[in-house]
Amino acid sequence: MNRILVIEDEHSIQKMIHYDLTQLGYQVVLASDGLSGLQLARNEPFDLIVLDLMLTKLSGLEICKALRRENHPAYMIMLTAMDEEMQKIEGLDAGADDYITKPFSPRELAARIKAALRRSERKEKPVTLQHQDITLDTLSYEAYLKGDKLNLTLKEFELLQYLIENKGIVLSRDQLLKTLWGYGYDGDTRVVDVHIFKLRDKIDPDANLIKTVRGVGYKLI
């Protein structure tokens, strides 16, 4: 049974998420403020964390940054308000894998959670991918650059893996969204751009490997 931590200080939203996810068979643990949520995430195993951006005692951004610094492996979905576009970007940059805007459909949240957990739980044979100085272990989800381990989030790892598997091919933003996130963003491809930016910062700051194809998407040289 997958364990999901929900960090949300609005009782009505917390109650709705808890009901919907338990009905789907997930084990759900609730936290009503950022500090208690961070403590739970540190002390108990969770496959996925749903957290609000604006929380009491500790913000969602602070929680993401703290957990990613500690290499926490859980997939993180950030809840944001409609008019917080820049904060969505900040959330992704802090380490969130995905975001969903309030008000949201419970079915949409459930679909995103299901897709995320399905991808992270795929049973694969040990496969090592190599591209220049980059090595990926697709069983342990570990990445290395010139022998040094990279601190990648799950989504950054999946993005890098997909680029390596399709090296030399131009991949559109829509294609990357459909393949790696598993659903549409109604034309909002900024989430792809942010993850590419973060990935470049870690492995390719001069953009020599991951090239931008203007008006289309990206390709790995």
Tell me about this structure.
- The protein is an alpha/beta fold and 221 residues long.
- The protein is built from 8 helices and 12 strands.
- It has helices at residues 11-23, 34-43, 60-69, 85-94, 106-120, 154-165, 173-181, 190-203; strands at 3-7, 27-31, 48-52, 75-81, 98-102, 128-131, 134-137, 142-145, 148-149, 171-172, 210-213, 217-220.
- Strands 2-1-3-4-5 form a 5-stranded parallel beta sheet, with helices on both faces.
- α2 (34-43) runs parallel beside α3 (60-69) and α6 packs across α8.
- The longest helix has 15 residues, at 106-120.
- It is globular and about 50 Å long.
Feature tags:
221 residues
List the helices and strands and how they pair.
Layout: E1 3-7, H1 11-23, E2 27-31, H2 34-43, E3 48-52, H3 60-69, E4 75-81, H4 85-94, E5 98-102, H5 106-120, E6 128-131, E7 134-137, E8 142-145, E9 148-149, H6 154-165, E10 171-172, H7 173-181, H8 190-203, E11 210-213, E12 217-220
Parallel strand pairs: 1-2, 1-3, 3-4, 4-5
Antiparallel strand pairs: 6-7, 7-8, 8-9, 10-12, 11-12
Helix pairs in contact: 2-3, 6-8
Give the amount of beta strand, in percent.
Answer: 15-25%
Major sheet characteristics: 5 strands, parallel
Would you identify the regions where 5 or more consecutive residues have pLDDT less than 50? none
Fraction of residues in helices? 40-55%
Radius of gyration: 17 Å
User: Can you tell me the overall shape?
Assistant: globular
Q: What average pLDDT do the residues reach? A: 86
Query: How do the strands line up in the largest sheet?
Result: 2-1-3-4-5
**Class computed from helices, strands and strand pairing:** alpha/beta
Write down the secondary-structure element order: EHEHEHEHEHEEEEHEHHEE
> Termini, distance in Å?
40 Å
Number of strands: 12
Task: Compute the number of helices.
Answer: 8
